[in-house]
């Protein structure tokens, strides 16, 4: 770890209900967002010493207060990570789940925040909002001589269009442009330079005060949207909460992020599936939030494979196929294996004709919900058929191999795994993710043209190994 990325705060720390008993210590926030507090003495009960008057803690301490002299801190969900055994007042190392820098909360769930400002990877490029214009000019060619450079120019203006807005339930979302620049020309030892930057951040606000963690799920919805649209695991680089007391101002939120921010570098726009110029913010947020909420756990499993691309192939297959089943259940809740009238007739027949003592056991298993293969066949029909065919090569083979992979990994059926060609095993997660992302594009209302472009520009390359296995299987099939 680069030590320059470690932030340390030296101060005094105490329990909110005992402010006179303070303990000195250093709060450290690692680059990855992990927070821990090293104290010079004991502040929390020793988990190794249990008495009737001081039983072992049943869970983390919900709230600690701290001060570094000019700044207030609230530490949330704190527990003892290390201290010497059987020593009551010994130095403690505490693990802190979340730090709020700039406020003393009265309780861990105090409702006192009306907004959050956040920086998310690729939001600036994806939004298309810019105040920059630039160009260059050349001298006209004379008597066959090549054109020569005449001038280059840059201009920075406040964008003329109003800030895009949308809603996530009762929360309002605004994309806010800002810039930093200097008109001063800086002379350096070997060159001269001017500087100007711009970025777009998101502001989430609500009319009534809420607790700090009320913004977490909305931030995740935005993060998933940008990860989906840009095909890059987008990190939330900073979150500043807006307190309802103007004198408190902004409060920095510090905790371990879902994605660790990497060094800022040029973004690659060519794999973007869509941008804000393709659909207004209010429309895309409304559709995305509704779908994100409806799918629930399945969409978290799906994007977990984007945020963490590591893992054994068996785990990737299990997660991808589990996401497929979950997404179909959510998007097609009324799907049935047989017509409802036929199922009702079948149940009635069993009730009338079966007299076995375990009849209730049998009736309990006469469900009319589709199996995995049936759900998979319906999934491939949701996106554009042309995009699905170009992605998978043979949708029927994907259904078969996805079913076998899911049964092998979920039910420990090794024989099912052996039915899948080796190349198809390694390509199955990418092919499945590509299909599920096409399903999301279709459900959001994006055209066949957009879906085909996604396959040709992104998912087709990732699923190439799967299609090669499909081609080999077809070539070896008897004619």
Overall residue-averaged pLDDT value: 90
What distance lies between the first and last C-alpha atoms, to the nearest angstrom? Answer: 59 Å
Number of helices: 14
Tell me the helix content: 25-40%
Shape: globular
The percentage of residues in β strands lies in: 25-35%
Low-confidence stretches: none
Number of individual domains: 3
Helix vs. strand class? alpha+beta
**Within the largest sheet, what's the order of strands?**
1-2-3-6-5-4
Radius of gyration: 29 Å
**Largest sheet report:** 6 strands, antiparallel, barrel
Number of DSSP strand runs: 14
**Series of H and E elements:** EEEEEEEHEEEEEHEEHHHHHHHHHHHH
Multimerization status: single chain
Describe it for me?
This protein is an alpha+beta fold. The protein has 3 domains: about 5-100, no CATH class; about 115-275, no CATH class; about 295-335 and about 370-475, no CATH class. The protein has helices spanning about 125, 215-230, 280-295, 295-305, 315-330, 340-355, 360-365, 370-380, 385-390, 395-410, 415-420, 420-445, 450-460, 465-475, and strands at about 5-15, 25-30, 35-40, 60-65, 70-80, 95-100, 115-120, 130-140, 150-155, 165-170, 170-185, 190-210, 235-245, 250-255. A hairpin with a 4-residue loop joins strand 11 (about 170-185) and strand 12 (about 190-210). Helix 12 (about 420-445) packs across helix 14 (about 465-475). It is globular. About 30% of the residues are buried. The model has no long low-confidence stretch (mean pLDDT about 90).
């Amino acid at each position: 770890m680069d030590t320059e990325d470690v932030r340390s705060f030296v101060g005094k720390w105490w329990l909110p209900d005992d402010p006179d008993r303070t303990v000195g210590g250093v709060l450290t926030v690692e680059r990855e967002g992990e927070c821990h507090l090293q104290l010079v003495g004991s502040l929390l009960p020793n988990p190794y010493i249990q008495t009737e008057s001081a039983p072992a803690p049943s869970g983390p301490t919900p709230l600690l207060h701290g001060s570094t002299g000019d700044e207030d801190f609230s530490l949330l969900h704190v527990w003892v990570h290390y201290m010497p055994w059987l020593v009551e007042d010994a130095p403690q190392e505490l693990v802190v789940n979340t730090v709020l820098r700039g406020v003393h909360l009265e309780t861990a769930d105090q409702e006192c925040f009306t907004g959050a400002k956040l920086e998310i990877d690729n939001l600036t490029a994806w939004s298309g909002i810019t105040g920059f214009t630039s160009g260059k000019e050349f001298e006209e060619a004379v008597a066959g001589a090549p054109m020569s450079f005449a001038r280059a120019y840059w201009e920075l203006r406040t964008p003329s269009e109003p800030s895009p807005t949308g809603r996530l339930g009762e929360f309002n979302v605004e994309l806010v442009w800002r810039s930093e620049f200097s008109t001063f020309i800086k002379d350096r030892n070997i060159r001269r330079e001017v500087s100007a930057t711009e970025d777009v951040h998101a502001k989430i606000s609500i009319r009534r005060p809420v607790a700090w963690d009320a913004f977490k799920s909305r931030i995740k919805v935005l993060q998933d949207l940008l990860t989906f649209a840009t095909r890059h695991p987008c990190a939330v680089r900073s979150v500043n909460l807006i307190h309802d007391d103007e004198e408190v101002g902004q409060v920095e939120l510090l905790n371990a992020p879902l994605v660790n921010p990497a060094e800022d570098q040029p973004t690659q726009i060519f794999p973007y599936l869509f941008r804000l110029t393709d659909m207004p913010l209010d429309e895309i947020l409304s559709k995305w939030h509704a779908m994100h909420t409806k799918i629930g756990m399945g969409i978290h499993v799906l994007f977990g494979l984007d945020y963490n691309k590591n893992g054994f192939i068996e785990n990737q297959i299990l997660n991808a196929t589990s996401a497929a089943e979950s997404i179909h259940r959510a998007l097609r809740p009324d799907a049935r294996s047989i017509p409802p009238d036929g199922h009702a007739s079948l149940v009635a027949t069993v009730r009338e004709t079966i007299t076995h003592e375990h009849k209730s056991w049998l009736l309990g298993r006469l469900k009319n919900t589709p199996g995995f293969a049936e759900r998979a066949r319906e999934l491939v029909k949701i996106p554009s058929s042309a995009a699905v065919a170009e992605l998978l090569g043979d949708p029927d083979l994907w259904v078969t191999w996805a079913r076998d992979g899911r049964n092998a990994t979920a039910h420990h059926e090794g024989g099912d795994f052996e039915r899948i060609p080796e190349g198809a095993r390694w390509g199955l997660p990418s092919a499945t993710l590509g299909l599920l992302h096409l399903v999301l594009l279709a459900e959001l209302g994006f055209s066949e043209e957009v879906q085909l472009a996604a396959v040709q520009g992104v998912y087709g390359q990732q699923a190439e190994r799967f299609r090669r296995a499909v081609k080999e299987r077809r070539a070896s099939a008897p004619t």
